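Handoff note, outgoing to incoming analyst
You'll be picking up this chain. Sequence as last confirmed:
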Amino acid sequence: MEEREFFIETTEQRTHMLTCPKCGQAAEYKVTWVVRRKRPQLPRGADERDRARFAKAQSYMVRRDDKLSCANIRCRKPFEITQLQSLAFLNQ
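Most recent structure output, in case you need it:
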C-alpha cells in the first residue's frame, strides 16, 4: 500500500507577511500549500506493516510556491521564499 492512500490531499492558499529582499518592503502574500490530512480510518486491504505506518503518519502541508513577485509597484521583482518552511506539520 502506498503512503498517499493514507492521506486526503487538497490545495489551500494562506496569507503570510513576507519581506522583499530587493526593496525591503513587507506585504501580505498568498502562498499555495498542498495539505495532506490523515484519513480517519485505515484503507481496506492493509497488512500489519501498513497498520504500523498508518499509526505513525501525521497530517502535514508542503509549500508549492517557491517564488513570488514583489507587491511593491516600483519593484515587482521575483524573489524566493526563504522566510517560510517548506514543510509544516498540522495539529489536530
